[in-house]
Design a protein that fits this description.
single chain; mainly alpha; 7 helices; globular
Length: 206
């Protein structure tokens, strides 16, 4: 096993452990601050939608359609060509995420009725409001997923190991800082902050 491969495996294992640990701490803190309430259930349901869109864009479409091409470019083409393709993937993904976020923001009331058909009207309105409030986090987390896929093609594994933990830490910070005052909206703010805390590697090849 090469030193580079061994380091990558250690990064991924360490990142998985840190993600699990911060996820357990996140659940503990949120349960302690909010308890088992309808508002927290509504937040987790709204978050499921954003996670699904993030996974489809970053984990399915980009990883399966574009990253194999980028990996081939990195082997067969000059670094500048590969960097140009990588930048194009990022730009296109950002545009798609912004369009999806705008569409979901507009469709949030309909999504809330579909996701919670048995909810009382006030909970459906709360779900729609949370869906709309999570759209900035969706763009940040979705773009992070795309960047992770691109960086993996460059055999850079440090950031992918850190992103889930940053999101969890953002949720913890939001719950502790404003949970008692702002309710689930404090979780939205914390997650949004965590979604934009990554430090991206320059891939321009210059």
């Amino acid at each position: 096993m090469s030193a580079g491969l061994g380091g990558a495996i250690l990064f991924l294992l360490g990142g998985a452990l840190v993600s699990r640990a911060t996820g357990l701490l996140r659940d503990t803190v949120i349960a302690a601050v909010f308890g088992a309430t309808a508002s927290t259930d509504t937040f987790w349901m709204a978050l499921t939608v954003t996670d699904l869109v993030r996974d489809v864009v970053g984990g399915v479409i980009v990883a399966s359609a574009f990253i194999p091409v980028l990996s081939e470019y990195l082997v067969t083409r000059p670094p500048r060509d590969a960097a140009r393709l990588g930048s194009g993937i990022l730009t296109l993904s950002a545009a798609v995420l912004l369009v999806l976020a705008a569409a979901l923001w507009c469709a949030a009331p309909v999504c809330a009725r579909l996701l919670g058909p048995g909810f009382p009207p006030e909970q459906q309105r709360a779900l729609a409001h949370l869906l709309q409030a999570l759209m900035p986090a969706l763009v940040g987390l979705g773009f992070a997923a795309v960047q992770i896929a691109v960086l993996n093609a460059y055999s850079s594994f440090g950031l992918p190991a850190a992103v889930p933990a940053l999101a969890n830490l953002g949720l913890i910070a939001g719950a502790l800082a404003g949970g008692a005052r702002w309710g689930p909206m404090s979780l939205v703010a914390g997650l949004t902050l965590g979604a934009y805390q990554g430090r991206w590697r320059d891939i321009r090849g210059e």
